[in-house]
Specification:
single chain, about 290 residues, alpha/beta, Rossmann fold, 2 domains, 3-stranded parallel beta sheet, 9 helices, globular, binds 5,10-Methenyltetrahydrofolate, hydrolase, Bifunctional protein FolD
């Protein structure tokens, strides 16, 4: 077999382009947009992601505040904090880092966030706006994937997109964004029969399942563009823990383009959070006019 090597769709250059645009927009606002991140508990991955997000916000010329609440925080206290942030005109974006501790129900917390400050795009109002094809704050990972494809000149309109995974944070909203961009969309998942036959029909294949190396070369059409959203921590032969995606490395021999993990979709997620925060600040500034336009 001859092995081609897929073009590497690197995250950082595309992420920098998104951040540069967001920074320029932010500079045109009366005050720098203010992002508030709420983290409950000390999950090491969450601590590290939140740190990365706050750092990027500073680099982009945004303000950020992190509320790190103890693991045992009662749900009512978290809801009270969200209400305070909603009412504060100096707060433009609110992100509650997931997952929350088991004693806190996710839904009431997400539904408590002002939809116009919901930079994660997880409030049902934003989900509904997205699915009815209206302007909406969209979840950062799928919006970042769309930005990445645009950055690298990968056309979406009219093409077959297969998304493996139907999560609230990635698979479902990505399907909505792809549909809005005129793709023909299939969402596959753990109960899908003959997954390989479906994934082989994709011009653009997105793996967002959270199972290391689920997508093998036989599941990919020659020349397909493959987006790997997986962030799996695995212990390698060297005994060290490292990150790997949902896509097997040998897929690079079949695909025309492939996003690496790390250094692919992850940085796009963070960049898109900055873009969403600026968008939220602009929506709030446009106030009553914005109300009419939505
Ligand atoms: N309310 C909420 N919104 C989120 O958007 C959200 C969340 N909760 N909970 C967890 C997931 C995961 N997530 C990532 C963000 C950045 C990287 C990222 O920057 N990854 C780097 C490497 C990071 C590392 O080395 O650990 C990369 O892929 O190159 C990954 C994953 C946002 N999430």
């Amino acid at each position: 077999m001859t092995t081609g090597t897929a073009t590497r769709l690197a995250g950082p250059p595309a992420a920098e382009a998104v951040i540069a645009t967001a920074s320029a927009q932010a500079a045109g606002l009366p005050t720098p947009p203010h992002l508030v991140i709420v983290r409950v508990g000390d999950d090491p991955a969450s601590v590290s992601y939140v740190r990365g997000k706050a750092k990027k916000a500073g680099e982009a010329g945004l303000r950020s505040t992190v509320h790190a609440l103890p693991e045992a925080t009662p749900q009512a206290d978290l809801l009270a904090l969200v209400a305070t942030l909603n009412a504060d005109p100096d707060v433009h974006g609110i992100l509650v880092q997931l997952p929350l501790p088991a004693h806190i129900a996710e839904e009431p917390v997400l539904e408590a966030i002002d939809p116009d400050k919901d930079v994660d795009g997880l409030h049902p109002v934003n989900v509904g706006r997205l699915w009815s094809g209206r302007p909406a704050l969209a979840p950062c990972t799928p919006a970042g994937i769309m930005a990445m494809l645009a950055h690298y000149g990968v056309a979406v309109a009219g093409r077959r997109v297969v998304i493996v995974g139907r999560s609230r944070l990635v698979g479902r909203p990505l399907a909505g964004l792809m549909l809005a961009a005129d793709a023909t969309v299939t969402v596959a998942h753990s109960r899908t029969r003959d997954l390989a036959a479906i994934t082989r029909s994709a011009d653009i294949l997105v793996a967002a399942v959270g199972r290391a190396h689920l997508i093998t070369p036989d599941m990919v059409a020659p020349g397909a563009v493959v987006i790997d959203v997986g962030i799996n921590r695995v212990v390698g032969e060297d005994g060290k823990s490292h990150l790997t995606g949902d896509v097997h490395p040998h897929v690079a021999a079949v695909a025309s383009a492939l996003t690496p993990v790390p250094g692919g979709v992850g940085p796009m997620t963070v960049a898109q959070l900055m873009a969403n925060t600026v968008q939220a600040a602009e929506r709030q500034r446009s106030g009553a006019l914005g109300e009419l336009l939505r």
